[in-house]
Amino acid sequence: MKKKIAAFIALSLSVNLANASKITDMIQKQTGQATTILKEQALSQDSNLKLLTLKDSSSGYKVLAVTNKQESIFLPITQAFFTNNDKDRELVVQEFQSITNYNMTFKTQAAVKKEIAKLPQEYIVSLKGKTSKKVFYIISDPLCPHCQEELKHLDERLKQGDVKMIPVGGMGVESANKVAELYEKLKTAKTDSEKIALLKKAYDTNYKAPTAKDATRTKVQEVVRSLMGKGKAEGTPYIIEEDL
């Protein structure tokens, strides 16, 4: 992925503005890479600029970039993007996060979704979003620091679509105990607010769950085996973002 981005950055520095061409033709000509434009979005701050989401035809990876109306420059966005326009900043952050999720999961998400479909519904925390345009499948471990951080942004996810969160207890005994308790208590949670409260409790670094019963811990281990590993989710949080 880094090599692809480096090639795109090199391209942006070498563009001849006097001989501008369409972005995909320009990339093909100067790097030999075939790409397709998946999405174009206007930027509020400058009507001459637009945000592009492209896909590399050979690798399957997506890239986010800024170009002008003439499509004579190509400026990839990696991690840093600064603007004093809040609307543009929110647009870029959401699109960049979406692309990052895709690039991390697109090769394995079919296999993972197949395994998720086999799980009993009691192991999946289903939350209704403010819109049904997307669904986020999130495999997450209560002891994973990145998962704890991801949970803090749950409200932002729910603004964009529905969330189906699958807690896994793969980081030792304490993790398994927390997920085992979640499985039991989620059975009686009737509202999304109750479910979210249970998640926040389990993911609290100061909370220590009681020792799980052997039967429940076995269920936790079975979920870990079905979802995690080579060719499936190789780390957490593992996020599939699906447009509906």
From TrEMBL:
Q: Span of the secretion signal?
A: 1-20
Any one Pfam family here would be DsbG_N
Q: Does the keyword Signal apply?
A: yes
Residue ranges occupied by any Disulfide isomerase DsbG N-terminal domain in the UniProt entry: 24-112
**Keywords from the UniProt entry:** Signal
Keyword Membrane (UniProt): no
Name the Gene3D superfamilies on file.
Answer: 3.10.450.520, Glutaredoxin (3.40.30.10)
Q: What is this protein called?
A: Disulfide isomerase DsbG N-terminal domain-containing protein
Native source organism of the sequence = Helicobacter bilis WiWa
The opening ranks of the lineage are:
Bacteria, Pseudomonadati, Campylobacterota, Epsilonproteobacteria, Campylobacterales
